[in-house]
Amino acid sequence: MALSGKKVVITGATSGIGRELAIQLSRKDCILGLTGRRNHLLEELAEELPAKTYIRQMDVSRPEQAQQQMEELVEAMGGLDIIVLNAGVSTLSREFEWESERQLIDTNVTGFCALLNTAFHHFSKQQSGHIVGISSIASLVPNPGSMGYNASKAFISNYLQGLRMRIKKNGLPIYVTDILPGYIHTPMTENNKGMFWVSTVEKATHQIVAAIEKRKFKAYITRRWFWVALLVRNIPHRFWYWIT
Ligand SMILES: NC(=O)c1ccc[n+]([C@@H]2O[C@H](COP(=O)([O-])OP(=O)(O)OC[C@H]3O[C@@H](n4cnc5c(N)ncnc54)[C@H](OP(=O)(O)O)[C@@H]3O)[C@@H](O)[C@H]2O)c1
To answer: In this structure, what CATH number is given to the domain that contains residue 71?
Structure first.
């Protein structure tokens, strides 16, 4: 599907993957709606981009407010064809404090669902649309160091699969794409240790754009993570428990 002229909202466009997606989609003549909490970064980015860009400061961890802001953004853009639900945080569960667990769930789970819901009802009414969720390879395995993060990504992938089945059951012409990145160089991972097969954000985003164009069900980013997914899916929990 050609992306030129499509109206695309990206959540979490102030840095990393979301920012690079904005750059690459703008070069493809998409009309963009960019969101994030750091408004000055949205303003700077919008000035740099070649195509028409709308911005809206938004904290997805305040779901009802974010839904309202999303509706206003879509109205300003004159419609919506694709939403990329990218905003996310990762916290290490070292101290296992409730405040950071809650913030992670509010952002990665509640915020994700709230904006997906708004987009879904918009797409149902207009009888077209494409929902793209940024999950992670982390969705496939439990991790004692980042339980909340891995579980939030498992939630996202599972939710998107259920949604795709629901859409089919109801005969709706809406596409759903689940993106599972491995390690990518972004501010989120800059202090991570022990990473491997780390991709540049440009290369990873190029593959994400290709997956959106092809309206893929699921895409591993970069592609080689498919083989890791194949392997870890079949490893029983007892093994992970044993190596901990
Ligand atoms: N980098 C990787 O290796 C990797 C791997 C797998 C999956 N991912 C996923 O890819 C997505 C993007 O991550 P990234 O690596 O690009 O990280 P990043 O550079 O830290 O970007 C995260 C983005 O999410 C936004 N965000 C965070 N909390 C928000 C909130 N409450 N409300 C609105 N926006 C919020 C941030 O904007 P503000 O701070 O301005 O609000 C920022 O634009 C995340 O969902 C992440 O889990 C990344």
So the answer is: 3.40.50.720
pTM of the model: 0.98
The SS3 call for residue 133 is strand
Which tokens in the block code for residue 213?
Answer: 């164009």
Write out the catalytic residue numbers.
149
Token pair 């853009």: residue:
77
The residue ranges of the chain whose pLDDT is under 50 are none
Q: Would you say the CB of residue 199 lies under 6 angstroms from ligand 1?
A: no
In a domain, residue 211? The reply is yes
Ligand 1 centroid, distance to 189 Cα (angstroms)? 10
pLDDT of residue 40: 98
From CA 70, how far away is CA 203, in angstroms rounded?
Answer: 29
Give residue 93's pLDDT: 67
Does the CB atom of residue 133 touch ligand 1 within 6 A? no
Amino acid identity, position 205: T
Contacts of 179 (CB under 8 A, 6+ apart): 132, 133, 134, 135, 208, 211, 218, 219, 221
The answer to the question of residue 2 being in a domain is no
In a domain, 224, yes or no: yes
pLDDT tens digits, one per residue of 193-230: 889 999 999 999 999 999 999 999 999 999 999 999 99
- Tell me how far the alpha carbon of residue 238 lies from the centroid of ligand 1, in angstroms: 31
pLDDT at residue 91, rounded to an integer: 81
Domain that holds residue 125: 7-243
Measured by CA distance, the residue closest to atom 19 of ligand 1 is 16
Domain count, the chain: 1
- Cβ of 16 closer than 6 Å to ligand 1, yes or no, is yes
Any domain includes 167: yes
